[in-house]
Amino acid sequence: MSAKKTKKAKPEQDQSLIHFMINGQEVQAKEGWTILETARQNGIKIPTLCFHPAVEAIGSCRLCVVEIMQNGRSQVAASCITPVQGDVEVLTDSEEVLNVRRWVLEMLLANCPASHQIRELAKEYGVTSTRFKVEHPEEACARCGLCTRACDEVVGIRAISLGNRGVFKEVTAPYHQRSTDCIRCGTCLYVCPTGAMEQLFPQVSAP
Q1: For residue 151, what is the domain's CATH number?
Q2: Total number of domains constituting the chain
Q3: Which domain holds residue 50?
Q4: Strand pairing partners for 89?
């Protein structure tokens, strides 16, 4: 007589992990992870602009928004600063998310129309023009602050910062003069998502 086949026991789930759904796919995350971190761990694409894993996320550009469904309700939130929670459904490309993302891209086309990177990203979402007024056609900086945060948090120098407020906000060296603290490491150029740093501080990349 042949021996009876025994069913293999299913591996127990790690109770310390948080389980939820992204686009119908079950994922798990560690306590403290954000939705964006979890999505990237599972190969799920969410576009970003002001985010870089080397610096603290601030969620300023809103390009990484997702829709979070729970108990019949939904909300749109920036995935880079939203911590994971169990028993929710996250949608990364719902119609509401795409509408917000296209609106953000239109704003970026108006604010930094000279950025090739922004124009290419906008095309991916079918955005080739903007309803908003273009004040400075030569502008490429999105004022996301990623370069200043990298200079501060990664390099520890603070050679550049965001000066002024509102529509007058700009990336600049203290007192609008070349900073003597700058070590010309090129970190700001590396993390800049729009290519603007090459125009603002060409001396950084100069030999």
Answers
A1: 3.30.70.20
A2: 2
A3: 18-93
A4: 21, 69
Q: What is the DSSP string of 98-161?
A: HHHHHHHHHHHHHH-TT-HHHHHHHHHTT----SS--S-TT-------HHHHHIIIII-----E
- Look up the CATH number of the domain holding residue 89: 3.10.20.740
Q: Residue 138: is it exposed, middle or buried by C-beta count within 10 angstroms (0-12/13-18/19+)?
A: exposed
Read off the pTM.
0.84
Query: Is pLDDT above 50 for 206?
Result: no
| Residue-level pLDDT at 10 | 45
Cα(176)–Cα(168) distance, rounded to whole angstroms?
A: 14
65 found inside a domain: yes
User: Is 55 within the bounds of a domain?
Assistant: yes
| 116 belongs to a structural domain | no
Query: For residue 28, what are the β-bridge partners?
Result: 19
Q: Residue 142 burial (CB < 10 Å; 0-12/13-18/19+)?
A: buried
> Measured between alpha carbons, how far is 60 from 141 in angstroms, rounded to an integer?
14
Radius of gyration of the chain (CA): 21
- 143-176 residue pLDDT tens: 999 999 999 999 998 888 886 665 556 777 766 6
